[in-house]
Amino acid sequence: MTIEQRRALDDRLRAAPQASGPTSVDQMRAGFARFMARFPVPSGVVRTATELGGRPAVLVEPLDGARSGTILYFHGGSFSLGSPETAMALTAHLVERTGVRAVSLDYRLAPEHPFPAGLDDCLAAYRDLLVQGIAPETILIAGDSAGGGLAVTTALAAKGDGLPLPAGIVAFSPGLDHTRTGDSMTTKEGIDPLFTREGMARTGQMYLDGQDPAQPLLAPAVLADLTGFPPILLQVGTNELLLDDSVRLADRARDAGVDVVLDVVADVPHVYPAFIGMLDEADDAVDRAALFISQRLRARGSKRAA
Predict the structure, then answer these.
(1) Which of 28, 87, 191, 298 is found 20 to 30 A from 38 (Cα to Cα)?
(2) Domains in the chain, please, with CATH?
(3) Mean per-residue pLDDT for 143-171?
């Protein structure tokens, strides 16, 4: 990555619509959708509308035919913005590079549907895959930002319900602590080109709707028991308010005896793997995520076959 790439991207993001400020939720959603539409979707996939767990979803499959496995994908957007389409570029790159199909869920959003509605939808989607007869060792849960947080908490909720856990979890810059107690919430203020503490407080209030954030499903980075979790890949940049969400979850995973890979990349922004073609590190990150997914699905599938 060159200094020029970093500076150009930082300037672009500072000029982008923010998930904060005095604008209405509808305006925030429209601005976010316009910004994310600039990310080109690779041509090697086909998209089909579907349904999972009673919610709309998009099935993303490689044109050349899919190998065994399913990526259950949750989009980002501060738990109040976004859709499968806003995360389609990153989702499609994972599908292209792994050869594994993905199902991207259109979960309910705050403030119309505060916690735990979106999480309930994600858990219902995972449960639906199991009911369809899809083996848990052939499922990997992934997501970015809020969706990365939901990838972790969906597995946590599944564990609490006694469901078998997936083969692995991939989370890009996940939101994992609604108590907002990470040091990076202060030290990265002004450095993060996308988020401010004030803006995150606004969207956080939408999602919480007055509920106590100090509970495992809202603050897994500081409160979750990760014992028995599958391997986790976390990718995060140093220029993020949410940096310490990933760092602290990785610490908890390690202490619980869970295999965890934490990629911390210097001077890159929130969900930096999405910026393929703009950051060299984005391509590298998606390659690493694709390798992690392929290895986890192959390893678990081999154990089942044995």
Answers:
(1) 191
(2) 3-305 (3.40.50.1820)
(3) 98
